User: Which sequence fits this backbone?
């Protein structure tokens, strides 16, 4: 709180207050075009507020914690939220015109979009692990509501499954959080200090290692459910496929990262205790398992949104693997991969959202020859899929390359397994891409005026990162990689 | 901690586990809702006792929430809904009662085995509370996976959440317990009853989740 008191209005206050206030405003605003515009503007200002944290970093207090690690998450989060709101504006207009969503639904959708942003920002800046938990829970339940927005059978089933698995995950995470407090109590003392991350990390070496171990297992399983790590991933494809597409972009690009952030914070606690178990191998096992499983599952997809949802599981697995491996190089690769994945995957979902509107279907078998019938959209999708599959010159290639070389230096055999799993996923994506993008175009298709600007902005950034990563970003990532140990 | 205080806390926490086991073999929705109300009462007593022995007045708020919200409002609302929908009939289970009970006993044993050794340094009250709380959480999970019916899955979730509140109340001096229990209650009230079940009802005229399985999007 001291930071807020000192400067009157700092970045963190805006990050939290603006989405909350906008949510209330949007809930009351009946005109959907205006609401979408307000949504965009609010997200843009939130992004600027996140950028301001680079310049003025608030002091760590009882409520707020801003360090090198979460600034990366905050900036990435608010940026993708901003571009998604631009995409959402045209997407939602089309959904309204075709009558899939009524005005009341739209008002609800916009308000929930901002509540989600508020909850994610709160989870990222909260110093108190209890508040972080509450924020992630709010974010989960908000997305449950948005996933069920279309009220079709599939959407309700997806929302229900997501709700059940999500709440189980969240319950396990809360149990883990309570155990962390129990471990801290004899050292830190009773009361609020026992839940402040900045206090916990200073004293972590004196905590009871056995209790900390059990706590981490619960936290990893609990928040890991939200990251979408196998074997607790089954909510993810349905939730992506049945909700509005902008939400699929936000889920893949942002919410999964927020859960990963929570896991990383607790991993740091464990790493600070010399007698506790090494958290790395657990994360690596879950991560590698997710990569392999998702890679295999990609072959059997018949739904375009589910296809890319499984690809998200694969990439979250890669990140968990990278952070589990640890060390400056692997952590750097993990951070870069997270950034690249968020940008690329949301770009793909922007393209997919437009494609499903154009074709009026999500079935892969009915989407053919896009580069012929819709060149801009088709080639945009090709670029996105090529990037996410890990081909040069895009940024994903670089992060995967770094990760594989870091693994190779540590254990060559494991690197082999990793490369094999990656190739499985790569093959599936290429197979699907050739069918969607090339050949005789499938019939049908309405004219849709959805903006392709956000998609190309993302792809340009990913391309740029693959060709030339600016030194300040490299230096920043290196600092964070050091910190992650 | 006096011997008696410890014993009473132990009694309530153990009672919570027992009621959770009772929830597992209920085969009618109305009976299940009644047992859930009993569980909420036991939780109230347990949290209130913790508030007394720890001298932590804020826990009385948590106890009051458990009493008013979980022991009265939710059961009444659920009963009325069940009556309105006319689904008092038996509950379709995925696994039979026998195996479920055995699994439940196994889970209780598991949580004792896991929690007691690692909390050796904690004070005995918190220690046993945690082991009991984990049992309740795992039994709630078990209930959620063995029932196909949306209402019983929700009751399973609430039972699981009761276990978490027990753990949080037992962790002496833990901040945010009241906030967490309020957050949970509000969410349960809004999400579960207001929206999900309402929507399922609206679409299927049944609250059997099995009906939803037919609409799995990715299946051909």
Assistant:
């Amino acid at each position: 709180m001291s930071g807020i008191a000192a400067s009157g209005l700092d970045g963190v206050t805006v990050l939290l207050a603006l989405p909350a206030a906008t949510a209330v405003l949007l809930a009351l605003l009946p005109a959907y075009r205006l609401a979408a515009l307000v949504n965009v503007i609010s997200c843009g200002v939130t992004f600027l507020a996140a950028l301001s944290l680079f310049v003025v970093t608030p002091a760590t207090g009882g409520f707020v914690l801003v360090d090198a690690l979460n600034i990366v998450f905050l900036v990435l989060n608010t940026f993708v939220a901003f571009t998604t709101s631009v995409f959402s504006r045209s997407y939602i207009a089309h959904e309204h015109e075709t009558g899939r969503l009524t005005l009341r639904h739209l008002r609800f959708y916009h308000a929930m979009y901002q509540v989600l942003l508020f909850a994610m920002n709160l989870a990222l800046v909260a110093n108190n692990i209890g508040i972080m938990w509450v924020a992630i829970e709010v974010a989960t339940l908000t997305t449950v509501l948005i996933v069920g927005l279309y009220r079709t059978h599939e959407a309700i089933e997806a929302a229900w499954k997501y709700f059940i698995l999500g709440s189980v995950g969240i319950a396990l995470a809360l149990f883990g959080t309570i155990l962390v407090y129990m471990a801290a109590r004899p050292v830190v003392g009773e009361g609020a200090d026992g839940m402040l991350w900045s206090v916990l990390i200073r004293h972590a070496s004196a905590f009871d290692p056995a209790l900390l171990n059990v706590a981490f297992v619960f936290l990893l399983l609990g928040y890991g459910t939200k990251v979408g790590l196998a074997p607790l991933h089954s909510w993810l494809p349905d939730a992506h496929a049945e909700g509005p597409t902008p939400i699929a972009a936000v889920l893949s690009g942002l919410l999964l990262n927020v859960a990963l952030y929570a896991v990383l914070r607790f991993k740091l606690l464990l790493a600070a205790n010399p007698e506790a178990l090494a958290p790395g191998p657990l994360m690596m096992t879950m991560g590698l398992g997710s990569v392999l499983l998702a890679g295999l599952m990609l072959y059997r997809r018949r739904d375009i949104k589910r296809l890319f949802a499984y690809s998200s599981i694969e990439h979250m697995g890669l990140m968990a693997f990278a952070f589990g491996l640890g060390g400056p190089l692997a952590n750097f690769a993990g951070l870069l991969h997270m950034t690249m994945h968020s940008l690329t995957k949301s770009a793909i979902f922007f393209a997919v959202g437009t494609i499903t509107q154009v074709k009026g279907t999500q079935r892969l078998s009915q989407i053919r020859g896009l580069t012929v019938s819709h060149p801009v959209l088709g080639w945009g999708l090709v670029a996105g899929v090529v990037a996410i599959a890990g081909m040069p010159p895009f940024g994903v290639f670089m992060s995967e390359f770094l990760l594989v070389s870091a693994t190779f230096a540590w254990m060559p055999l494991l690197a082999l397994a990793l490369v094999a799993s990656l190739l499985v996923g790569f093959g599936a994506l290429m197979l699907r891409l050739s069918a969607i993008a090339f050949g005789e175009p499938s019939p049908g298709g309405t004219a849709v005026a959805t903006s392709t600007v956000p998609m190309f902005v993302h792809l340009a950034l990913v391309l740029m990162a693959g060709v030339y990563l600016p030194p300040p970003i490299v230096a920043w990532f290196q600092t964070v990689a050091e910190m992650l140990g | 901690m006096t011997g008696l205080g410890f014993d009473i806390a132990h009694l309530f926490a153990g009672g919570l586990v027992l009621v959770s086991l009772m929830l597992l073999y209920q085969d009618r929705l109305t009976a299940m809702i009644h047992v859930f109300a009993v569980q909420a009462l036991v939780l109230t007593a347990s949290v209130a006792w913790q508030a007394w022995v720890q001298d932590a007045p804020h826990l009385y708020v948590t106890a009051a929430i458990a009493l008013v919200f979980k022991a009265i409002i939710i059961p009444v609302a659920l009963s009325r809904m069940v009556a309105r929908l006319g689904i008092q009939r038996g509950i379709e289970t995925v696994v039979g009662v026998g195996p479920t009970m055995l699994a439940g006993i196994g889970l209780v044993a598991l949580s004792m085995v896991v929690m007691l050794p690692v909390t050796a340094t904690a004070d005995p009250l918190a220690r046993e509370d945690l082991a009991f709380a984990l049992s309740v959480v795992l039994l709630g999970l078990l209930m959620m996976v063995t029932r196909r019916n949306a209402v019983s899955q929700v009751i399973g979730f609430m039972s699981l959440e009761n276990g978490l509140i027990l753990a949080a109340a037992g962790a002496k001096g833990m901040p945010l317990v009241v906030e967490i229990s309020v957050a949970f209650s509000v969410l349960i009230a809004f999400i579960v009853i207001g929206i999900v079940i309402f929507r399922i009802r609206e679409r299927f005229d049944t609250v059997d989740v099995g009906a939803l399985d037919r609409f799995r999007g990715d299946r051909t």
Notes: Residues 153-188 of chain A form the longest helix (36 residues). Chain A touches chain B through 51 residues (CB under 8 Å). The two ends of chain A are 28 Å apart (CA to CA). Chain A is about 80% helix and 0% strand.
